[in-house]
Specification:
Blueprint (H helix, E strand, L loop, with lengths): L3 E6 L3 H12 L5 E7 L16 E2 L3 H4 L6 E4 L4 H13 L4 E3 L2 H18 L3 E2 L10 H7 L6 E7 L2 H13 L3 H10 L8 H4 L2 H15 L9 E2 L7 H9 L3 E11 L3 E11 L12 E8 L3 E8 L3 H16 L16 E2 L4 E8 L4 H4 L4 E6 L5 E8 H6 L1 H4 L4 E6 L8
Parallel strand pairs: 1-2, 1-4, 2-3, 4-5, 5-6, 8-10, 10-13
Antiparallel strand pairs: 7-9, 7-11, 9-10, 11-12, 14-16, 14-17, 15-16
Bound molecules: L-homoserine (HSE).
L-homoserine binds next to α6.
Amino acid sequence: MGKIRIGLFGFGVVGQGIYEVLRRTKNVDAEIVKICVRSLDKPRPGEIDRRFFTDSADEILLDPAIDLIVEVIDDAEASYRIVKAALERKIPVVSGNKAMLANHLQELIEMQKRNGVALLYDASSCGSIPVIRNLEEYYDNDLLLEVKGILNGSSNYILSRVFDHQCPYAEALAQAQALGFAESDPSFDIEGYDSLFKLVIITVHALGVYVHPRDIFTYGISTIHDSDIRYAREKRVKIKLVAQVVKVAGDRFTMFVMPEFVSPKKYIYSVDDEYNGVVIRGECYDRQFMFGKGAGSLPTASSILSDIMARQHDYRYEYKKMNYADRPAYTTDILLRIYARYTDTPVPAILPFEKIHEQYFSSECNYLIGDVKLSALIEHRAELNGKDLFLANIPLFFIDRD
Ligand code: HSE
């Protein structure tokens, strides 16, 4: 393939990073020929000729000289329209938009097949860590048992600051925003949705199954309180926001996003600040660990660069596991052990606990540790979200080993 002529959508934190990594690399035969932005009036870095910029998507989509679209805009709906329009025109796309991908991946996979065109998105999940392509190629077999990790840099940054540096929560969030890790609406980070979107994408490549985000239990860190941090410290664990997809008995798998008590012997215990860490477990090889920067301009851009390079070799995802004869089925009929701290919201009356292992009442707050079905957490999530309570998972799967 000759020189790749790129039409770039978005020139924010990641878009500018792409411009910079392409400038730094000597062996990439690719150039950005047009940049589509929402506002032409916004000041742009001085060295870029203003003629590169347009606010018309069609100037890129209808330009026959452009042979790759790189899409890193913030707006998931606009991103969906651009990606669909490009794939219909058989123009390959590299995207970093996890919300768009997680909500529309099934349809976008069908479009890729129908039009014989590639959509690559390694940057969408865990920034610079090459999770997707590894799951797709190296782990193209039945051995995989679990993918579990810290997939959101901002919430991990906040928890690290709060836990290890005694920083107030609001201050830590403001820092994550200032450093360019957080989403424009940071509730996506702290309520767990950003991790959820990445988990949905990862599961397609880990197990060959697409599950819609609405069907997955997601609980974030926004209601964490000093008493939770104190409790975790007493137990010598850290609280991390963990996303996981795990095979369970009977050819089934489960998945969810929740804060988790992480003991010092786990790999993810030492994943701090905006770093992400992913543990991959399988039959025959036990566990492997991938660690790296999951957010930020240049780390994310480096993953986009890798996808651009892959296009130079005509690479595309084949979604091979989606054609496996025996794919596992998604279940929420599993028991979790959770920590619940609450004051006025009567958690034991809302959730049907099958067993309560520990309980503590005081005038300030109450907590319990009990076993509850994941399906019950999903059923009652509206009564739990945003209330004066905090939930955390206490791992039961592969308990001694990851
Ligand atoms: N807001 C995201 C994060 C950016 O903090 O991980 C990278 O996807």
